[in-house]
């Protein structure tokens, strides 16, 4: 485990909340020091999407006992994959994040925190009825030759129930925002030597 390097610049080692949320949506395409963390965050979001679909299938009205058993096996497999990605993040923390002896120990590993955020990000997307990650923004030229960005709209599922979508979406995004704020506080405290992350 990396321990207390005097004069080290803390805080730059861990991805910001906005970078982490972006990683849930799209794969990392640049070389970064924290690339392992962001790749695992992306995979965790994919795991939670597959887990959500499996649970929906298991709870569908016409699901047979064989369907339920298959879905249960799928969920177990996904949870094993999640555990692998969480461990990958925690191994990266152990090797790369200096900790000051005597700082308060956080109750969860960074991998567990990011896994919870990935689950809530998927729940927030589902509450909006988003059926696929949004396409990347495209760039076009203005009349004066300057570039301008066109953001692609979210694809909303037309077959999903529309009742209470606004209130459910608001609740899920509010909860995600709370987790993102908590994550920001955590990495700030780690940067300021006031908290250390468990690495077991």
Question: Which keywords apply here?
Answer:
single chain; 200 residues; mainly alpha; 5 helices; 56% helix; 6% strand
Return Rg in Å.
Answer: 20 Å
Structural class: mainly alpha
Low-confidence stretches: 1-11, 131-161
| Tally of individual helices | 5
Helices and strands, in order, run as HHHEHEEHE
Q: Order of strands side by side in the largest beta sheet?
A: 1-4
What overall form do the CA principal axes indicate? globular
Fraction in helix: 55-70%
Distance between the termini: 10 Å
The oligomeric status of these chains comes to single chain
What fraction of the residues are assigned to beta strands by DSSP? 5-15%
User: Can you count the beta strands?
Assistant: 4
Report on the structure:
This protein is mainly alpha-helical and 200 residues long. Helices cover 56% and strands 6% of the residues. The chain has 5 helices and 4 strands. The protein has helices spanning 17-25, 35-58, 65-96, 110-128, 165-191, and strands at 104-105, 138-141, 147-150, 195-196. The protein has a two-stranded parallel ribbon with strand order 1-4. A two-stranded antiparallel sheet has the order 2-3. α3 (65-96) packs across α4 (110-128). The radius of gyration is 20 Å and the shape is globular. It starts with 16 loop residues before the first helix and ends with a strand. The model is unreliable at 1-11 and 131-161 (pLDDT under 50).
In short:
With 200 residues, this protein is mostly helical. It has 5 helices and 4 strands.
What layout of secondary structure does this protein have?
Layout: H1 17-25, H2 35-58, H3 65-96, E1 104-105, H4 110-128, E2 138-141, E3 147-150, H5 165-191, E4 195-196
Parallel strand pairs: 1-4
Antiparallel strand pairs: 2-3
């Amino acid at each position: 485990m990396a321990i207390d390097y005097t004069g080290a610049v803390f805080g730059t080692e861990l991805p910001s909340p906005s970078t982490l949320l972006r990683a849930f949506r799209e794969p990392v395409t640049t070389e970064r020091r924290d690339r392992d963390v962001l790749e695992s965050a992306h995979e965790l979001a994919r795991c939670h999407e597959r887990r959500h679909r499996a649970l929906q299938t298991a709870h569908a009205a016409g699901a047979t006992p064989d369907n339920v058993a298959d879905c249960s096996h799928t969920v177990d497999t996904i949870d094993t994959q999640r555990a692998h990605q969480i461990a990958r993040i925690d191994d990266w923390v152990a090797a790369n994040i200096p900790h000051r002896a005597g700082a308060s120990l956080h109750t969860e590993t960074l991998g567990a925190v990011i896994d919870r955020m990935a689950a809530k990000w998927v729940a927030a997307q589902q509450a909006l009825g988003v059926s696929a990650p949004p396409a990347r923004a495209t760039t076009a030229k203005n009349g004066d030759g300057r570039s301008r960005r066109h953001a692609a709209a979210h694809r909303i599922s037309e077959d999903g129930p529309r009742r209470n979508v606004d209130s459910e979406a608001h609740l899920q995004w509010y909860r995600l925002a709370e987790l993102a704020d908590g994550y920001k506080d955590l990495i700030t405290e780690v940067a300021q030597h006031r908290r250390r992350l468990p690495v077991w």
